[in-house]
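quick one: NAP bound model?
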Amino acid sequence: MPAALVTGSSRGIGRAIAERFARDGYDVAVNYVSSAQKARAVAESIQRETDSEAVAVRADVGDPDDAADLVEATVEAFGDLSHVVNNAGIDQHVHTEDLSPEDFDRVMDTNVNGAFNVTKAALPHLKESAASEKADADSAPTPSVTNVSSILAYTGAPIECHYAASKAGLLGLTKSHAGDFAPEIRVNAIAPGHVETDMTADRTEEEAKSEMEKIPLDRFGQPADIAEAAAYLRDAGFVTGETLNVNGGELMR
Ligand code: NAP
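yep, here:
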């Protein structure tokens, strides 16, 4: 069975992607940095409810050594790595005048450096998977990397400039790697709008109402909406260097 690594899949969007990939027939490495119990519960429910295998692996993706160990643990567990979803991310609401250089770096380290670290470590394995799939033309789609960016990469965000900068950085990383790794490996991004997870749970009623007014489809996104996009990009054999905007139409306005 081919295998996938989904970073930051102990909860939220990453969890939905890991579960979706498992239902679609992939063994999955469930990565976390601090929520060990939640990650183990995700891996256990995948094993219970699907035919796929799952392992929970702790790694801080911002640390290159941790990222390399995470990739090795995935390959050791499953003997394959065909798809990577760089989903792990952190956010912080603070105005620039109160934002410390350390906090700026912390967000960049996780959100951009993390995707770079994991992709770099995964590259030899993705190439290996591409070579073995070429030998077996009827097998799964070509290997892929999908980076989870954000609508804020385009719009910016007054109280989270480091987050917006990190998500814009991911779009540059995506296009660069798409050109670099073609034709063997496809690299794409997803730019979600507002999705209901822990990351957005601190919005006041007033903030949520004003955000909702910007969404033509009249609802916030759910993790499964982003998992649907991740499954599409995993399987879309002629798509690379693209960003799939999943935001209920918010960018139209
Ligand atoms: P979430 O519920 O806060 O979950 C974040 C996940 O990332 C958790 O699994 C967390 O692990 C993991 N993580 C954080 N730092 C990490 C690190 N250094 N190394 C490894 N894993 C780490 O967030 P979410 O809303 O699902 O967001 C997932 C992704 O979508 C993020 O990249 C986010 O920026 C992006 N996004 C979200 C929204 C939204 O509206 N929710 C919109 C646009 C983009 P632990 O549980 O161990 O802490």
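The pocket of NAP is lined by residues 7-14, 31-35, 38, 60-62, 87-91, 110, 114, 148, 150, 192, 194-195, 197-200 (CB under 6 Å).
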